[in-house]
């Protein structure tokens, strides 16, 4: 499993190409050649960039869902809507499809932020707003999510 660290700013060009930071490339060096999957985020107006091996692990979980239950099919359809395979080109960029750029509202300024084993790709202004909005409730959220377990039990 990959554990990514960092938040980096970059620019998207007119074609939707975005440079992956050298720090992320170094952390992903063992899986760069396998490519990536980019998709719409579930909870935020951003994109999620999965290394292919992480995407395959997610698909193993999703494939265990009973597809004869409507809610499972609805979830799978929404979760995989707009999913695209992307590769890093020779100059270290990925090409984000226009429909996904539009979904995330990405103009020029981009923030790539680690989220454990994936990278979130944000329009910079939307990212700053999401961080500012989350700051207000973060103490309560941290207590709710992490406060009911002993530190030794989190694993």
Based on the model shown, name its key terms.
155 residues, alpha+beta, Chemotaxis protein chec, 6-stranded antiparallel beta sheet, 37% helix, globular
Can you walk me through this structure?
- This protein has 155 residues and is α+β, with helices and mostly antiparallel strands.
- The chain has a single domain, classed as Transcriptional regulator MraZ domain (Chemotaxis protein chec, 3-Layer(aba) Sandwich).
- It is built from 5 helices and 8 strands; from the N terminus they run E-E-H-E-E-H-H-E-E-H-E-E-H.
- A 6-stranded antiparallel beta sheet has the order 1-7-8-4-3-5. It has a two-stranded antiparallel sheet with strand order 2-6.
- Strand 3 and strand 4 form a beta hairpin.
- It starts with 6 loop residues before the first strand and ends in a 9-residue tail after the last helix.
- Beta-strand residue percentage: 15-25%
CATH homologous superfamily caption: Transcriptional regulator MraZ domain
Radius of gyration: 17 Å
Q: Span between N and C termini? A: 14 Å
Helix content: 25-40%
Secondary-structure class: alpha+beta
The geometry reads as: globular
- With helices defined by DSSP (H or I, 4 residues minimum), what is the helix count? 5
CATH architecture type: 3-Layer(aba) Sandwich
Protein name: Transcriptional regulator MraZ
Domain SpoVT-AbrB: 7-54, 83-126
Keywords: Cytoplasm, DNA-binding, Repeat, Transcription, Transcription regulation
Family: Belongs to the MraZ family.
Quick description:
Strands 1-7-8-4-3-5 form a six-stranded antiparallel β-sheet. Strands 2-6 form a two-stranded antiparallel sheet. It is globular.
